[in-house]
Specification:
46% of the residues lie in helices and 12% in strands. The protein has 439 residues and is an alpha/beta fold. The protein has three domains: 1-116, de novo design (two linked rop proteins), CATH 1.20.1440; 121-269 and 336-424, Rossmann fold; 271-333, no CATH class. The strands form two sheets. The chain has an eight-stranded mixed β-sheet, with helices on both faces. It has a two-stranded antiparallel sheet with strand order 7-8. Helix 8 (210-226) packs across helix 9 (244-252). The two termini are 37 Å apart.
């Protein structure tokens, strides 16, 4: 497959992720090319400068368009500015002081775009624990969407879960914008270890994210009861997430209020992912106690000094988990599994329809160790209610998180959801079999 940035796998992947948001106004091709020309291999400072420059440029375009009364153009430019600011600090490693201001500018630009969107988008605060609220957005389908409210039907709801390094604003480009055009309402929020909850509150990830999703479902039911004009069908709620968010989605699906689950490229065990990416002989020696934590930490930190991708991964891992040493980070990964001593076999508790995907060119997992294993483990979901989509080529969704192929990902997701929610749509073209018979 062609690589956008051949000299750096991590840069190439993140550039593909950014370019893939173009259909939903998250990127402009000329601005993209301008930024890429200024980025140096594995140089986070050049990355930050290049994307900050484009973000500021998009902000100026948005302000000029808004001043001229061009609402759509202003909205699109604000969205690009949001996404460029999100991308700009992506390669920076905590506690770099540039991260939080950049993240705040990303959020600010997105919220400037909200009043210019077709449908209503409400900023929400979901009550969580110890006085903390989880920030999010509730999208309502615009009048121009493929409405599903004919005959008085309310909008089914899609709960979108962020992953390890995504934000609630990026989920606009990946899921929300497409979902509302299909007539679904969308709730997206950030939990512990994600987005602004991590960057501003320093609250780490939790493996049992179903606790957070349960709070979100409580919120949905409460707000729907309080304001029936929202038109939310809280009896038809689906959950979706990618990568870490896909793992979270499977855990969320144990809640009986979730009626369907779309899990985009999940892992079964984060510990096993880490094990597969480590030198096996050395990893086994450490696990079995033949190598001390001190030596293990020294070896990883030494490698981080000369290898940017490893430095970035462990930098993010430390920040998200709240642990300072690599050995402790990896041990914490044991808890991020669909089968643990504390929680038991999570997948046996899932009873709703589930779509699981894998990616042939995935960075962290294989179909056999993730999607197919999960499919086999969904023992209380009937065969006609669980599906696996395993694309190989990048154009078909073969990259991790379906980056670069989000429109096709949405199509596959809604084919699955519509089928199980019995959504009937007006066909725009006869099925292939009918066309062949008529020819």
């Amino acid at each position: 497959m062609y690589s956008i940035f051949p000299s750096s796998t991590i840069f190439s992947f993140e550039l593909t992720r950014l370019l893939g948001s173009t259909p939903n106004s998250g990127c402009d091709i000329a601005e993209f090319l301008s930024a890429v020309s200024k980025i140096k291999k594995n140089n986070p400072d050049s990355w930050f400068s290049a994307w900050t420059e484009q973000a500021i440029r998009a902000e100026k375009i948005a302000e000029d368009a808004a001043t001229a009364g061009y609402g759509v153009l202003a909205r699109n430019a604000y969205l690009r500015a949001c996404n460029y600011h999100r991308a700009s600090h992506f390669m920076l490693i905590h506690p770099d002081e540039r991260i939080l201001p950049s993240a705040q500018r990303s959020i600010g630009n997105f919220q400037k775009a909200i009043p210019l969107m077709e449908g209503r988008v409400l900023k929400v605060s979901i009550p969580y624990e110890k006085g903390l609220d989880l920030p999010g957005y509730l999208y309502l389908p615009p009048a121009s969407s493929t409405r599903l409210q004919a005959g008085g039907r309310k909008s089914p709801v899609l709960v979108v879960l962020c992953g390890a390094d995504s934000t609630k604003e990026e989920m606009h480009f990946m899921f929300a914008d497409g979902a509302i055009q299909m007539g679904y309402a969308v709730l997206v929020f950030e939990g512990p270890g994600q987005g602004h909850v991590l960057k501003r509150k320093e609250i780490p990830l939790r493996p049992d994210f179903e606790v957070c999703t349960s709070k979100a479902l409580d919120y949905l039911h409460a707000i729907s009861k309080k304001d029936e004009s929202l038109g939310l069908d809280v009896d038809i709620i689906a959950v979706v997430g990618a990568s870490l968010g896909a793992y979270y989605a499977l855990r969320a699906a144990t809640d009986s209020r979730i009626k369907a689950c779309v899990s985009i490229d999940p892992f079964f065990s984060l510990w096993e992912v880490a094990e597969s990416r480590s030198p096996k002989a050395v990893f086994d020696l450490w696990v079995n106690g033949w190598l001390s934590d001190g030596f293990w930490n020294w070896s990883i930190e030494t490698h981080c000094k000369v290898n940017f991708p490893t430095r970035w991964e462990f930098g993010l891992g430390k920040w998200m988990t709240g642990y300072k040493e690599p050995a402790d980070v990896l041990r914490r990964f044991r808890d991020f599994s669909l089968d643990t001593t504390i929680d038991g076999n999570i997948l046996e508790k899932v009873k709703c329809p589930v779509l699981i995907t894998s990616a042939d060119q995935a960075m962290y997992t294989s179909a056999e160790t993730s999607a197919l294993r999960i499919h086999r483990s969904l023992t209380n979901v009937t065969e006609d209610c669980k599906e696996v989509w395993a694309p190989k080529d990048a154009a078909d969704g073969g990259l991790t998180g379906k980056v670069g192929a989000w429109p096709l990902m949405l199509q596959k997701s809604f084919e699955f959801l519509d089928k199980h929610f019995e959504v009937k749509r007006t066909l725009l073209l006869d099925p292939p079999s009918s066309r062949e018979q008529g020819s």
